[in-house]
Amino acid sequence: MFDSLSLKLEKAFQTLKGQGRITEINVASTIKEIRKALIDADVNYKVAKDVTDEIKVKAMGMDVLTAISPGQLLTKITNDELTSLMGGQGEDISIEGNPAVILIAGLQGSGKTTFSGKLANYLKRQGRSVLLTACDIYRPAAIDQLKVLGAQIDVEVYAEPENKDAVKIAKAAIEHAKKNNHRVVIVDTAGRLAVDEEMMDEIARLKEVLKPSETLFVVDAMTGQDAVNTAKAFNDRLNFNGVVLTKLDGDTRGGAALSIRRVVEKPIKFISSGEKMEAIDRFYPDRMAGRILGMGDVVSLVEKAQQTFDEDEARRLNAKMRRNQFDFNDFLSQLEQVKKMGNMKDMLSMIPGMGKAMKGVDFDENSFKPVEAIIKSMTLKERENPEILNSSRKNRLAKGSGTSIQQVNQLLKQFEDMRKMMKTMNKMGGGKRALGALNPFGR
Length: 443
Description:
The protein is an alpha/beta fold.
C-alpha cells in the first residue's frame, strides 16, 4: 500500500546523502520533497504542511552528532512525526459490559461484514465467547455472508431474516447472548453507497439503545481522502471510538491512513487486508511509520507467527528435524501454517530493507497450490519415504495433481536439498539454534 510513498521519501532523504551538516538550504530542499511525497500519497494538504513544518523546526534545532549523518537524523525526525501523526501509540478496543457490545459502522462495500468476522475470530483466539449479530436488513445476502463467516471460525451468528427492525434484532441478540453465556456481541450494521440521513438515523438509534462499549468505523483505505471525509461525517453524528482501515493490500496511495487520525481525532485501532479471517492486526503507529520509511516491522512479523504457529506442533517438528526424520507430512503442515500468516509479500516487507527489494515483485498466492496438489497425491508411505518415488510413481503424481513430471522432480529435488541442509547443520552442532530459528517456538 505504501510502496510509492516509501520510494519517494527515500528519494527525498537522498538529497542529504553525503552532506556533512544540516543547513537551512539542504533541509528546505528535503522538506519540499517530503511534502510533495505526502500530498502525492493523498494526504490532506493541511496535514502534510503541518507535519513537514514540524519536521523542519525540529531539524533546524538539532545538532548532528558525529556518528549520525544529516540524512539519518532527518529520517529519525520524520519517523517520529509520522508516528505522532498516526496517533503516537496503539490503542486496543474496550471490552466492558455483560455482554460487551461492539457496534460496527461504515459505508456499503467498506468491508464491515468481513471485518466483523475477523474481529470475532481475533477475540475468540483470546478466549472470549463471541456472538455475531446480523443487523444489515437491506443488503441482499448480507445475513448469509455473515453466517458463512461464522461457520468458518465456529462462532454463532444471531439473525432474524424476516425482521426489518435492526434495533429489535440487536436487542434480541443481547438477550440471546446473556442466556447462552456469550461475553461479546458484535453487531454488523447496514451501509449505504453514500452517507444519507436514513442510514445515520438508524445507526444513531442502535448506538443509543445498545450503549456499546466500542463503536468502530470501518473505512476502505483505497478510497483516499473520501475516506477521511466520510469518517468525519460519521464521527460528527456517532462520536465513534476508533477507526478500522480495510483493504490495505490494495493498490492505493495510503494517504487516508496518514490523515484520518489528525482530522477526526480518533485512533486507528485495527487494520486488515484480504479475505482470510486471520488477516487482522492491531494498529501501531510507530510500526507503520517504520514500514513506510523502509525500516520494516519485525515485531509484528514475530507476533503474527506466534499467533499462527502451534507451539506443540513446532516443537514436534524441531525434534523430527534434529533426528533427520522430516518428511512430506511435516512439510505440508508447515506450509499450511505459513499460508495462515497472510500475504507473503506483506510479510516479507516487514523485514528491514526488504520493502524496497520487493518493489515490482508480484507474489502469486496460488503458487503454493501445485506443491500442495503433488504432496496430497502421494500415498502415506510415499510422504514418509520419498526415496521410493520411482518413475512410474512420479508419473502417477503428475497426473493425479494436474502438474508436470518436471514440477514433481523439481519439488523432490528442493525437498531433498532441504533435508541435506538440515542434516549438515545437525552434524556441525548448529542445528538446534538454526532449526529453532525456523519458527517462533524453537527451543
